[in-house]
Design goal:
Blueprint (H helix, E strand, L loop, with lengths): L8 H24 L9 H22 L3 H19 L1 H9 L20 H5 L1 H16 L4 H26 L4 H9 L2 H6 L5 H22 L4 H18 L1 H20 L6 H23 L2 H19 L17 H17 L12 H18 L4 H10 L1 H20 L3 H7 L4 H9 L9
Helix pairs in contact: 1-7, 2-7, 3-4, 3-6, 7-8, 7-10, 8-20, 10-11, 10-12, 11-12, 12-18, 15-18, 16-20, 17-18, 18-20
Length: about 450
């Protein structure tokens, strides 16, 4: 199926109706989940997300000739047609894709056939299945689905930012920059793409994690159910991202428990020694595990494909390949992390299309230097390890940064995958610990 993405009178009608609904949700959400410092930026933040989602769609459709966004929507439209024609077959396909039966097992000339590479690639097809829900409820209106996804991306950013402002006393400017006005995050994580789904689910999971840990401990069974479903979807979207979300939460629990000993320094130091030893042993166990080796194997396959397949063009960088040996991984970690967070730099010859990413990298490097050369640098590091959310942000950023830098090879892929880690990096580098000590 080769879906023609246009804007018909019916599309305009559907878009108008959904826009009215989204405006109504915006009015209610701003009233019910609010912050005195952030409220006046609500609609500007929403509009920024929507504009960048439209820009993302326009660039891919009319500058790059379609690319991933067209393939995802094409597949989602086929699934929507399958739902309209045979709901039982749609549910069967959503639950399990029987690739051994061939693509024609559920799809035909009536539903259309999804792009073969999307259907064959597990993570891409899971993303397509999720996007198909938006295709169904919008009657295959591409622009309406884009508006809905951009709005959801804003809403999860908003509820997390408000909580961080109200509960953790994070500054307005840090939160605005991190969650609403980082250009690359808004561009890559607001439209019809796997990156948008990963971003939305990740921020929702972080919000629910910390509700359970300290912010709002009610409806525990319901929250655990939401967490399980969301984590399941994240795992099948990007395997490593599920680990990146779950592992730091476990460490945040230990940090939360350790804060009980703040008034008992001997117990506190004893607890920290045991904790650091446990973390070190766990780290060695994790990087030596079969799951980590499998993730590295998958990353190596991705690297090889991006590096050797001629259909993947564009500016590339080089990074050594690891066999999964723990010593090799530790040795590669700094290079992969630096590449993910601070490249492409202004010195990389990547062309004009990456100028915004280069400027972002330059700003992040300046923020890192400001953080390092602060006279309270050591105190701030210590406070990060004592502060549940900051510890979470640090570990999450390290894991995502390593995997993005190690596996991407193409700068065009790197800037997409790293985008989800950038808000957490910004919060780490700009948080003022004088405002609130962890409790």
């Amino acid at each position: 199926m080769n879906t023609s993405i246009s804007l018909s009178i019916l599309d305009l009608l559907i878009l108008s109706l959904y826009l009215l609904g989204i405006i109504a949700i915006n009015v209610r959400l701003k009233r019910s989940i609010n912050s005195k410092e952030l409220n006046r930026f609500y609609y500007l933040g929403w509009l920024y997300k929507v504009v960048f989602s439209l820009l993302f769609a326009l660039v891919y459709l009319y500058v790059l000739g379609g690319g991933d966004i067209n393939a995802y929507w094409d597949g989602a439209s086929c699934l929507a047609e399958l739902f309209y024609n045979d709901p039982n077959s749609y549910l069967a396909e959503i639950i399990q894709t029987k690739r051994d039966m061939g693509i024609a097992y559920h799809f035909n000339s009536t539903t259309g056939f999804p792009p073969g590479w999307i259907w064959r690639e597990e993570e891409a097809w899971v993303a397509t299945k999720i996007i198909s829900v938006f295709a169904i409820i919008t009657f295959n209106s591409f622009w309406t689905a884009t508006l809905i996804l951009a709005s959801i991306a804003f809403w999860v950013s908003w509820i997390l930012a408000v909580k961080l402002n109200n509960e953790e006393k994070m500054s307005r400017n840090s939160l605005l920059f991190a969650f609403f006005f980082l250009p690359s995050v808004s561009f890559w994580c607001s439209g019809i793409s796997k990156d948008s789904l990963a971003y939305i689910l990740s921020l929702f999971l972080v919000f629910q994690f910390f509700n359970l840990l300290k912010w709002k401990r009610n409806k525990i069974i319901f929250r655990l159910l939401l967490l399980s479903i969301s984590l399941f979807m994240v795992y099948y979207l990007r395997h490593y991202l599920a680990y990146a979300l779950l592992v730091p939460f476990l460490l945040a629990i230990f940090a939360r428990f350790g804060n009980r000993f703040t008034e008992r320094p001997i117990l506190l130091w004893g607890y920290r020694i045991i904790l650091y030893f446990t973390v070190a042993v766990s780290f060695v166990a994790v990087i030596s595990s079969n799951q980590t080796k499998q993730l590295i194997v998958e990353a190596n396959i991705t690297k090889s494909d991006f590096s050797k397949n001629p259909i993947y063009s564009g500016a590339k960088y080089e990074i050594p390949t690891s066999s999964g040996n723990p010593v090799e991984l530790i040795a590669l970690f700094p290079l992969a992390l630096f590449t993910a967070l601070f490249r492409p730099s202004v010195l990389d010859p990547v062309g004009g299309s990456f100028i915004i990413n280069q400027l972002e990298s330059a700003i992040l490097i300046l923020l890192v230097l400001r953080f390092i050369f602060n006279r309270k640098f050591l105190n701030n590091i210590n406070r990060i390890f004592r502060h549940e959310f900051m510890l979470y942000a640090l570990i999450f950023m390290l894991i995502v940064g390593f995997m993005a830098g190690y596996s991407s090879i193409l700068y065009g892929v790197l800037v997409r995958i790293r985008a989800i880690a950038l808000p957490f990096l910004v919060l780490l580098l700009t948080y003022d610990f004088k405002l609130k000590e962890s409790t």
